[in-house]
């Protein structure tokens, strides 16, 4: 457990749990030094009296001192200060996730916008196994909201679009996530067998956040570390973490938990990348390298059109000349066309998409 922060260039307290108030600790960290912040701040639940189940057992609600604020104003001041401290330490292309319930999430969202953060999405974490509404006076509170925001509007934040799609079985990931609350073996217990922390978040939630919005080696800071869910998942996924937690009992739980986490195999950490992020290969390169010869005929995938390859990497079809995309679009009467998937060439009597040649060149580049 470290309470002091080493100063100087690149002296980030990587993979450490820092003791103290997160505002003070973040203010002592170097400016623009972390890639992502995941923050699960106090909810400010304002509980009035104990809550009981129908069998009269007491509900283990969040009534801890760390969740008590005298008024909305005090909570808002606290929110302003920690979000300001967080923004200072974010790299220019950094981003933040905050999670909250209806008690606090609107206040968090407003302050994020006030400070110049740029909201990218709000995600509804729909709990597949929520706690019932025991009094039967309101709807079952079955979700929490996460807000994902970049440091500012211009930030080139990380989003592993293809990886998120792959996680969702090939369908674009939506902003409503159905995941169970933290239960069973994952729920950490104290020496008496009671919950070690009232608001331990599920690792599945952090897995999705970290895979989707960071890269291996990135530094993820969690200013309200609790049991260290962020640190545990970051370590598994080959990311660096910095945790800040005020309460010693939670720091101890988190430290023990993270020490027992094993990093996943390096190859398993590579995720599907965005097609847009792949290196650009001009069609002309295929001609220069002799993979296609000037004068060679290309046939459209639907078999309706043909064009000839020219020495400068353009195509000609009757009186139309241009790039593989332009000629394809013209022949189809379409506003645009992806020439890479439209055109085929003939080898050994078979029509092969020209994209196969592009993939060959890309594979050589890796
Ligand atoms: C909602 S819980 C976070 C739980 C955590 N996400 C997990 O999965 O275990 C908030 C935590 O922030 C800590 N905390 C509250 N105010 C703090 C402050 N000003 N500085 C540092 N930690 C604080 C509390 O002790 C509590 O453990």
Protein architecture, described:
The protein is built from 11 helices and 14 strands. The chain has 2 domains: 16-46 and 58-269, Rossmann fold (3-Layer(aba) Sandwich); 283-365. Helices cover 28% and strands 21% of the residues. The protein has 366 residues and is α/β, with parallel strands linked by helices. The strands form 2 sheets. It has an 8-stranded mixed beta sheet, with helices on both faces. It has a 6-stranded antiparallel beta sheet with strand order 12-11-10-9-13-14. The protein is elongated, with a radius of gyration of 27 Å. The longest helix is centred in the N-terminal third of the chain and has 18 residues, at 72-89. Helix 2 packs across helix 3. A hairpin with a 5-residue loop joins strand 10 (306-309) and strand 11 (315-317). S-adenosylmethionine binds next to strand 8. Residues 34-256 form the DNA methylase N-4/N-6 domain. One of its GO terms (molecular function) is site-specific DNA-methyltransferase (adenine-specific) activity.
Under the CATH scheme, the architecture of the largest domain is: 3-Layer(aba) Sandwich
Strand coverage percent: 15-25%
Q: How many structural units, i.e. domains?
A: 2
Shape: elongated
Q: What is the strand tally?
A: 14
Distance between the termini: 41 Å
Bound molecule types: S-adenosylmethionine
**Mind telling me the CATH superfamily name of the largest domain?**
Vaccinia Virus protein VP39
CATH class of the largest domain, please? Alpha Beta
In DSSP terms (H or I, runs of 4 or more residues), the helix count works out at 11
